[in-house]
Amino acid sequence: MNTVTLYTTDTCPYCRSAKSLLASKGINMQEINIQTQPGKLEEMLSRSGRRSVPQIFIGDTHIGGFDDLAKLDHQGGLMSMLA
């Protein structure tokens, strides 16, 4: 199964929504808090090219933010990407 990685902050409501959606599906995730982990903001910028959170990856594939994750799930593609 591919690893799901989320770059988050403590105050982001979309981060909480992404974590909730993934948890509701029983999907384990690696959360990287860019506020509390030095150097992780630069890592997120390098990987995604974006500054907003959450930034979500499945394996090495950049999904985008929460809206992109929700759309992928709604279209039935989330679980197949995890396989």
UniProtKB/TrEMBL annotation:
GO molecular function: electron transfer activity; glutathione disulfide oxidoreductase activity
Gene3D superfamilies given in the database record: Glutaredoxin
Pfam families: Glutaredoxin (PF00462)
Stretches assigned to coiled coil: none
Domain Glutaredoxin: 4-63
GO biological process, one term: cell redox homeostasis
Domain of life per record: Bacteria
Keyword terms, alphabetized: Cytoplasm, Disulfide bond, Electron transport, Redox-active center, Transport
Function: Has a glutathione-disulfide oxidoreductase activity in the presence of NADPH and glutathione reductase. Reduces low molecular weight disulfides and proteins.
Similarity field: Belongs to the glutaredoxin family.
The protein's name: Glutaredoxin
Organism: Pseudomonas moorei
